[in-house]
Amino acid sequence: MTLRRGTAFRRPAARRVPAAHLVVLTVLTVLIASVTLPVEAATRKRKSTKKAAPIPEVPRPHDPFAVSFPSSDGVRLVATWKPSPAGPSAPAVLLLHAFSRERREVAFLADELAARGFSTLALDLRGHGESVWKGGVRLGTSPSLQTSPNGFPRDVEAACAWLGPRATRVGVFGLSLSGNLAALATAAGWAEAAVAVSANADRFEKLAGTRPKSPTGLLVLASEKDPGRAGSARLLENLGRAPKSVVLYPGTAHALELLKGEPAAKDAAFAWLEARLGPVTPPPAPVATIPVPAPEPAPAAAPAPGGESR
Which residue of 10, 168, 271, 292 is 20 to 30 Å from 22, comparing CA positions? Predict the structure, then answer.
């Protein structure tokens, strides 16, 4: 475009937005803000107030032998107590379930030990079964308990102390992780004998913490091909003091499966506890007797006819 001399240059006029369009844009902006801000605020609020899901209650049948007592840090421990007919003069065995299990799984051991004259206490470890309350707070099961010296060991110590006045001597029977607790009970002097089945000794020292770590009176049972358990059995034996023993069985059976599938393993455990804790022959059952009446004297014989002398 050619400009003529003396002609002023004018910029093109800016395009004006119709007023109606401005109104529509304003309304849309307000609507978007009114939706976005509450959503963001609600999201922030949910993140700041979110609580852990409550642990559901598990209904359980009534246990007429249930007892409870506190741990040293206030956990309400629940157990099944089956005293021997011999009362406090009989030895007792504390039965400990594996991690993430509960005391009902060892009920069959309680029955068999009772037949041999033992009293038994089957314990729910904290966070398991019915041992889930500390004050007003419900406890959960955490993997960190497997290596905490301030968790399960406190439960075992409290249970052994509870058995003290109710038994002449105390033994502990532990499965898997609880095999370490059984070993610790003898090392710390809470019990006189222990049986550890399929223990994982890698966790033993952490569970013990500052407590003594040299078990005594310990029998360790394990399967040769159960990963890591045969080596753990030998490690616990090396840490221990006499009397001590290790028995390995063929196969891969673990904990309860080993006891149920290998009768010799269960027999070895019972024999070990009997030898360490003293004679436990149950008293003979009373036999009802009925007195037999004495026989009455026979009547005198009548004389024969014609047999009289003249």
Answer: 10
